[in-house]
Amino acid sequence: MSARNLSLIYTLAWRNVWRNHRRTFVVLVAIAFGIWSMATLAAIMRGMIEQQVRNAINNLTGHIQVHAVGYRDDPVVDNSMPPPGPDMVEVLRGEHVRAWSTRVRVPAVVASERESAGVTLVGIDPEAEQGLSFIEKAVTEGRYLESPGDHGVLLGRKLAERLETSLGKRVVLMSQDVDNEIADRGFRVVGIFDANMEATETGYVFTGRSVAQEMLRLGENISELALVARDRQDLSAVLQLLVRVAPELDIQPWTKLEPLLVLTVKMYEATMLIWFVVVFLAMSFGLINTLLMAVFERTREIGLFQALGMRPGFLLSQVLLESLTVLMIGLVMGNVLAWATIASLADGLNLSAFAEGLEWAGISSVIYPLISASDVISANLLVVVLGIVASLYPAWRAARRVPVEAITRI
Amino acid sequence: MSITLRLAWRNIWRHPRRTLLTSSAIAFAAAILVFMVTLQRSSYDKMIDFTLRVYHGHLQVQPEGYLDKPQIRNTIPDARSLASHIRRLSGSASLAVRAMGFALASSKERSYGVQVLGVETENESQVSTIPGLARKGRFLSSGDAQEAIIGYLLARNLKLDVGGELTLLGTGRDGSVAATVVPVVGIFKSGSADLDRQLVQLPLGAFQDVFSMGNHGHTIVVVGESLEHLEELQRVVRSGLPPGSSLVVLNWEALLPGLKQAIQMDWVSGWFLYASLIIIVSFSILNTFLMSVFERTREFGIMLALGARPGRIGVLVIVEAVWLTLLGLAVGVLIGTATVIYFHIYGFSYPGMEELAAHYNMPAVIHLALSPLSLTLGPAVILLVTFAAALYPALRIRLLKPVDAMKAV
Questions:
Q1: Could you give the CA distance from residue A262 to residue A46 in angstroms, rounded to a whole number?
Q2: Which domains, from first to last, does chain B contain?
């Protein structure tokens, strides 16, 4: 088909679209609404997924963790490892890694004068935790730890309430040291932190890393090394480097550390795709119907075209082009609307009415919708491709008309 | 009126293809809604039932303030007599007394902070599934037996097996030291990581001894026959409390606010999806009716000229819309219900669910419940919305002038 023919078909298709502008408008609104709901929902869901993943990563997981073999099964002081050697440090200071830190992380009991509770004691290097975990920004009362040798502890707000203790008071931490003896030590509460999840507030107690090492008689040994890489999706390079310098250690990416999270993400994505198809199908009924109506009311005209020598293929492409035009205009409208909706929600969609339910799913109560190029593309592509497929039937009906029969029909 | 019905029925079949397509759209939406709403509601019931039966029960009697701050000195005096008093009042409900404390649990090699729960060995199995979930060994034998069962994660962390000795060290109700050494007789897996990681159960008598509780307890767990009559049960239980006591009766929504909200959240977001589906379908109906009104301008003009009032023609158009919708709904509900019945018998599962379900000790297959409300809720909403969509074309008829309309092409 020559370029001139193409431009002729296009002119015809474009004019046909606007012959019944009210009808076209209703179809456009339906398509725009459909794509709007797809894109908006995808952005909200994507935002929820992203938040879940980020929360998990922030919650002391990081992108990659290094442990002594056996620690993940039995997270105790026995399964500790020496601090990273020079080779490892070189990898960690390399271009792939954004932040890294070493930690002591063991089960412990914290007791105030009145109550006690089981917690995880985390000895951290306060400066290195910046950009690695939530704790650096989470202290809302008192102060953050100042150095690995800081003797203060940070308690979660909920835990402080349960223990009936507060800033400036003393608590006792008990855990097992390397000789299986109970090590205990008094600490002053120097900071209270708030976290997204209640479980985080009640589950962790932070102190300086060297202080924890000294209390547990670990020497220089650590329980965990966590790092955040430049790109969460592409960890294979760093993983390879790490495994090469430390083959004897257990090195795991977040996808292995949080398998349930990965499964949840997959399920979200599957749900989203199914939903795209359902919305599209609902839309396609309207689209096919409108095109069919348009074809049938033009029966005479189509017959005339054919009598004058227009080939069926020409008519077929004309109807398809008509459908494509409507689809494209609808898509542009829908995408613009979706973008506007998402932009207006940039400050977050506040769902605090369901805060505790969301916490169950590991989501914070304010959701920040996230436009992902792949979601938008897959929604649009799905509508265009399947839309054209759905238009094949009306287009075929148009091309099939026998000229004489068509012209004589009233 | 009957002539309007018949006229409308004939009118919609003037364009059989268009009618079929439009009602297919409605049928499609209705079938999806019937299936999805039923699936949602069935999984909620299952989720609630499963979650509550593991540990929390339907209702709990607790001292005021205990829920927020579970302190060992905040107790229910003479808890077992109170429980049997309520049991007599409530008839069929199951009750069990529990007492709870915090302790440092140690094996030879390891120590962890744990929650120690004293349970009535003879009643606990009626309110909680944990006694039946022993992966190894057995449940506690009698009220005063010096023995314990523990969660499998705790067992792994403590490196303890059945027969191993567990040392508990905590604080009793009067502030004294509570210490005991008991053999582990069973290891359970409840599916809740929290319980499996930090729960130790002792017989109530042994717990009361060790923690200097006397005859006091901390909660009375109540499980009724079903969730439907919960409010009534709550009233009965409340009436059984001693007058002037500071005890409160909490239902599962108060005990586990997260569960309730997670369900509401899912329900609301589900309806957000359904609303988009219904709106898109109703556009297709709106279009069909706009067309059917415009192409009949001449005909309506003649009808008006013959003396039909615009209102009557409007009603005709709306009846056509209702016919069309009902046709679609009938097919949709039929297909949806058939699907639901199929999954009611054979169970529904989706990829990935098995892994998730296994993690939470939930069944991997949902047998959809047949409930009239679930089956009709979606279609009813569709009927309402399509009715609204047909109103606009119907009202446009009022604008027609007979003479101009008859001249229309």
A1: 13
A2: 2-52+259-407 (no CATH), 90-216 (2.40.70)
